[in-house]
Write a structure and sequence with these properties.
Oligomer: single chain
Distance between the termini: 27 Å
Number of domains: 1
Length: 71
């Protein structure tokens, strides 16, 4: 399963692609196809997918793939 991080909002996407949350436990969980479809659709809104296991180990992303380290 995957979570989706929004660099624009500095939060995880909520379940079913609705809203945002700072709490990883309350974030939406998405299968491979759905996460890829959503992140691709909203790439201009600065969102990326993160494997749930990696999110649990490292927390929220700190490095934007295009803009470098976030503050």
């Amino acid at each position: 399963m995957y979570l989706i991080w929004s660099f624009e909002h500095g939060m995880w996407w909520g379940p079913m692609g609705v809203g945002y949350t700072k709490q990883r436990a309350k974030a939406g969980r998405y299968g491979t196809d759905e996460a890829g479809r959503l992140a691709t659709r909203y790439v201009l809104l600065e969102s990326i997918i993160v494997h749930e296991e990696l999110a649990n180990k490292q927390g929220s992303p700190k490095y934007h793939p295009y803009h470098g380290a976030s503050e």
